[in-house]
């Protein structure tokens, strides 16, 4: 977990969010099991990685609590800077070992990426068993990513306080880091922590669908949402 003062980003540090659908033939539960065991052991060997969190969709009767967001695997990895991140993914360990196992876990042809910096809006301490309500947001065609990120730190952040999250942080995509890499799949990831899945679901369908959602209209266009149980591997 990243500590910090309200509204302050972790300067220079890269938070890489990688997402993909599960490989054909796997159930969601099977993909989650492989991800947290064999694949995690391999991924931890990538040079330069200083943080690794797996965001596992909370399942009920084998399905996510919210509509399918377009991915089954969502990994947040952290690096001191963009150079160390690129060196890690260029390493022999990643290219030969990790990538070979990725084929057992994900459909790499539909991989999505956001290279971000994390900023903390409300620096609370999540309780044991807390979950994340994650919203992946893109700027509306009539707006700009800058207008979206300004709104998220200002009026939107005030509006979501009514949902009483335990913690509020945001991952803000850095467009310059994507030059020469995959296009960014989103412009920001809003992360609200709640004590459990029921509280997160109630927030998603209640307070966040009211003023907070209204504020995003015309600035963001749609949102993919996930209620995730985070598993910190490093």
Structure described in brief:
This protein has helices spanning 28-43, 82-90, 92-102, 145-153, 155-160, 197-205, 211-216; strands at residues 8-9, 14-20, 51-57, 59-60, 63-64, 73-79, 112-122, 131-139, 167-173, 188-194, 220-232.
Shape: globular
Poorly predicted sequence stretches spanning 5 or more consecutive residues: 1-9
Radius of gyration: 17 Å
CATH first level: Alpha Beta
Strands, count = 11
Judged by helices, strands and strand pairing, the structural class is alpha+beta
Quote the beta fraction.
25-35%
Description:
There is one protein chain. With 234 residues, the chain is α+β, with helices and mostly antiparallel strands. The chain has a single domain (8-232), classed as Alpha-Beta Plaits (2-Layer Sandwich), CATH 3.30.70. The chain is 28% helix and 32% strand. The chain has helices spanning 28-43, 82-90, 92-102, 145-153, 155-160, 197-205, 211-216, and strands spanning 8-9, 14-20, 51-57, 59-60, 63-64, 73-79, 112-122, 131-139, 167-173, 188-194, 220-232. The protein has an eight-stranded antiparallel beta barrel with strand order 2-6-3-11-8-10-9-7, surrounded by four helices. It has a two-stranded antiparallel ribbon with strand order 4-5. It is globular and about 50 Å long. The termini are close together.
